[in-house]
Design goal:
The protein has one domain. Helix content is 33%, strand content 45%. Strands 1-2-3-4-5-6-7 form a 7-stranded antiparallel beta sheet. The longest helix has 32 residues.
Length: 132
């Protein structure tokens, strides 16, 4: 494979990752808004060796129990096709959303998979549980 073909492959992969993260942030924003939580969007720069520098959207949500942060970590992570963290403040509890062929999988901080589908009900319950 030529260097250009390899570069094109990584750029295409990066583009697909940014699109997946954007869809996730859009989805969570809709769910949080439906719960009447204040929602603030921002961007985060990420630097990765294989895919270069890029920006992804982030989300901060304010519920009656505290704040939640949806923050992409990286495309290139061990054992997954990308990782996004969902973290609560002030508890600092967190779950990891990792990319898989079946969509987003929820992993606890102790690396135990939470065998629940990623959907609005799961998100709302997780948000409440994370906030204590």
């Amino acid at each position: 494979m030529t260097t250009q073909a390899l570069d094109d492959k990584w750029l295409a992969r990066r583009t697909e990752w940014i699109e997946r993260v954007t869809r996730l942030v859009d989805e969570v924003e809709q769910w949080a808004t439906a719960e009447n939580w204040a929602v603030y969007r921002d961007t985060k720069p990420i630097k990765e060796r294989a895919t270069g520098d890029y920006e992804v959207p982030t989300l901060r949500m304010r519920s009656p129990r505290g704040e939640l942060f949806l923050t992409p970590v990286a495309l290139h992570v061990l054992g997954a096709d990308g990782r996004v963290d969902l973290e609560a403040w002030p508890t600092m509890n967190r779950v990891k959303l990792v990319g898989s062929p079946d969509g987003w999988q929820i992993i606890t901080d102790s690396n135990v998979p939470l065998r629940q589908p990623w959907n609005r009900n799961t998100f709302v319950q997780l948000a409440r549980d994370l906030q204590g």
